[in-house]
Structure formats: structure tokens, C-alpha cells
Amino acid sequence: MRARHGAVVRLEPDACACPAAAAAFGFKPLPEGLASGRGLVGFGIVTDPAVGQEMFRGMPRLTSGSIGGIVACPLSQAPRTPDVVVLEGPPENLMWVALADLNRAGGARRHGDTAVLQATCVDAVVIPHVQQRLNFSLGCYGCREATDLGPDETVLGFPGQRLAAILVALEALNEKAVPRSRAKQVYKTLMCPKEVEDAGKDAH
Fold it and tell me: Shortest CA distance to 27 belongs to which of 41, 36, 16, 38?
């Protein structure tokens, strides 16, 4: 959130307040209260601890101690190509980024992997970094409670080394597909058949 608003933030292992994120980044072991699923029951996220337990069992994570910290900053301020680019915004905007990546990948379908938990740390950072692919999420309890991510926004992440190719594909999409889709001419025609019919009569 702070990087989104212009700050440069370094996250150290001992300063990561979220124990689930700390485990995802390999900073600390997952606390038993979360690993058992009972913590998610306490938050009201699940009603059965076994469901929460399974969610954490399948959580992609970095190897313990593999990194010493994380730096988050606006992309324009990155001193080098970042390991991961994280985007937050309206789903329609992020859809074009996913389509750009699909173009870059030769048409192969894009896959979203989420437990609707840890959307920013796991879905948008760990998965793109570990699996070297774009991943998108609908958000999660934590990012919606603890940050200013709006109800009309969501998040995705992709490996930084793909940034240049995605930008090229986005420029191509912006030549025709993006403005044509946003103009909604087909929708307007379908929703106003009487006006279209009258216009046709006037033309004759």
C-alpha cells in the first residue's frame, strides 16, 4: 500500500507483522494457531478448522531463510528490474495486463491460483516469483482489511523480467482492442434497439 502511494519500503523478517505473510516469505514458521486452521475460524473466514488447515497446507511459500528481506517501491523508482511487479487496480485494467501476457505467451491460457487468502503476499508475489508466471487474485480478507484496496479493485503480479514484453503487448492492445471495448458500441446497440431502428429509417 505504501509503495503504491510513492514510498520505498523495506520489509525485514522481524518487522513482518502478519504471521501468515512471514511464513510465506520464509521469514518464520507458521504459528500453530494458523496451521491448525483455528485462527481462520476465529477471524470468521472459515467455519471448519480443517478447511483453514488445508488452505495453509497448500500455501506456496519461499524456502525458509532464502531471502533477507523485501523492498517494495513504485515501479518508476526501482533501481533495477524488480523480481516481481505487483499491480493493484480495477479488474478491467488488470484484465488487459493478463491479455498482454497471454499474447506474450503465444496464446496459452492464463491461470489464477488463490485460496482467497494472502492475495498480496502469496498470490501476487510468491507465486509469480517461484513459478515465474503471471498470477491474479480476487483479493483476500487481509488486504481488504489492512490496506486501502477498494471493493472495486483487485491485484495481480508477474515476474519483472516479463515487463518489457507485456508493455509491448499492451501498446498493441491499446491501438484498437482497448478503446473499442471501452466504447461499448455493441452494448449501446443492444440496449437501445428503438433508437437504432429509428436512425435506420431516417437514413432511408
Answer: 16
Q: Is residue 44 part of a domain?
A: yes
Q: How many domains does the chain have?
A: 1
Q: What's the domain range around 173?
A: 9-187
Q: Please state the length of the chain.
A: 204
Distance CA 28, CA 11 (A): 13
**What's the Cα-to-Cα distance from 47 to each of 32, 33, 43, 44, 52, rounded to whole Å?**
17, 15, 9, 7, 9
* pLDDT one-digit tens code per residue, 161-190: 999 999 999 999 999 999 999 999 999 989
C-alpha cell at 97: 495486463
Cα gap 171→163, rounded to integer Å: 12
Which residues lie below 8 Å from residue 106, measured CB to CB, with a gap of 6+?
none
Residue of 145, 119, 117 whose CA lies nearest to 40: 117
Phi/psi for 156 (5° steps) reads: -145, 165
Distance, CA of 123 to CA of 99 (rounded, Å): 18
Give 111's DSSP letter: -
- Does residue 162 lie within any of the structural domains? yes
pLDDT digit string (tens) for 22-34?
Answer: 999 999 999 999 9
Q: Would residue 159 count as lying in a domain?
A: yes
Residue 88 φ then ψ, to 5°: -120, 140
